[in-house]
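Researcher: I'd like a structural prediction for the single chain below. Treat it as a standalone chain; there are no partners to consider.
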Amino acid sequence: MDIKAKLLVDLLILSHLEGEDIALKNILELLDSKHYGKHLEELRRDFGWMPPRVAFSKLSHNSGWRKSLAQAAQEYLQSHLLASSKTMKENWKRMLPHRFSSQHLM
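Model: Treating it as a single chain, here is the predicted structure.
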C-alpha cells in the first residue's frame, strides 16, 4: 500500500471516530505531518474545508488519488469496519493515544 493509501486509511478511521460534521482540515490536524508531508498538505489545501464524506467522494474522481482511495477503502473495510469492537478500539488508540482513554471508546 502506498503512502497516500495509508494516509487515507488513517483518515477513514479518524473520520469514523470524529464524525462527518466537521471539516476535513480538523481531522488532518490530528495526523503526523512529518510522516505524510506533501500529501497531507495537498488534502488540506484542496479539500480541507469539506466534510470528510464529500472530500472522499471528490478524491474518487481525482486521477491522482483514485487508486490510493480504492486501496484504502479495502484496507479500512477489512481491518476496521469488519473487525471486532476490540480491534476498532485498538485502531483508535493507535491513531490518538494521547487524546482518548478507554472510557471514550465504547
